[in-house]
Amino acid sequence: SPAIFSYDVNGGNRVDGPPEDNVRGEVDIVAPDLKITKGPNLALCEGQQGNVTISVENTGNVKVSNIVVTDELPLGWTSCGVVSGGVTVEQVGTTLTFSSFDLAPCELQDIVLCLQAGAECTDGQNTASAEGVHLADCLDGGGRGVGPVSASSLLECLAGPCIDIRCAVDKPEVCPDEAYVVTVWGK
Questions:
Q1: Torsions phi, psi of 18, nearest 5?
Q2: pTM for the model
Q3: CA 34, CA 146: separation in Å to the nearest integer?
Q4: Using an 8 Å Cβ cutoff, are 114 and 80 in contact?
């Protein structure tokens, strides 16, 4: 096994027999490990959306498989989807669960997630955690758990009034001295 260093030392003399003169053992040099970070903090008004990034890194020396990331939202917050990261998300209550992925040593997976503040949103910690498994060789029965590790960011619901102003021009191109209309509206 490339993950286990085995040793066999023998010596001594012929008088006392082989069991005393033969020392065998092994040292497991596998060190699976994960690190997770999350940010930025978001402060949004009701109905507004913002993105947070969850970064999961394999800081160990072996592949970690079947990594599952979960994210606990404060009440009133919902996911508006994964912006990037190659995973999908499912929300049940305030818990988001992302589809599993694998990471080789030193690999990093960035998941950019869109969140929306609802009408009854509350301020609070937004805690993500990650855990996976090191699928060890056949010598130790199939694998060992890695993690969980967690990281948090803050979600804040801003009190009204929240103003969203948008502008539109009635023509895509305007020449000098040509009249055009700019419409401004807000909510």
A1: -70, -35
A2: 0.72
A3: 7
A4: yes
